[in-house]
Design goal:
The protein is built from 2 helices and 3 strands; from the N terminus they run ααβββ. Helices cover 52% and strands 9% of the residues. By secondary structure, it is mainly α. It has a domain of 59 residues.
């Protein structure tokens, strides 16, 4: 696991771990109440809360320890999109006029 260098990132990570622990505790309370009252809906609610805790923990781990952590990496300076890698077709078939090449010339077909 990569070390968290920024104090803000460490604080966010500790806060998210506390939220995950609180969600798991709440899920266990819901499931205990479901067992006591014999209610299936509370069991489903506990499972949903537990799944959200697992999802939050997964996103937290991927975000904070990935190859370029999102909270540590600098923002990109160029926001433009290059179309150099886009491969356009050589011709476009028009219903009435025939074949149009990429320069806009219509060829009889």
């Amino acid at each position: 696991m990569a070390a968290l260098h920024d104090p803000f990132t460490t604080a966010v990570a500790i806060f998210l771990v506390a939220v995950v622990i609180a969600l798991v505790a709440w899920a266990l309370q819901l499931m205990q109440a479901a067992n006591d009252r014999q209610e299936f809906s509370l069991m489903l609610a506990g499972c949903m809360v537990c799944c959200s805790a697992v999802g939050l923990a997964t996103v937290m781990v991927i975000t904070l320890t990935g190859p370029s952590p999102l909270l540590i990496a600098p923002l990109p300076t160029d926001a433009g999109v290059s179309l150099d890698a886009v491969l356009l077709p050589d011709g476009l078939l028009l219903p009435d006029a025939g074949l149009m090449n990429r320069y806009g010339d219509v060829q009889a077909g």
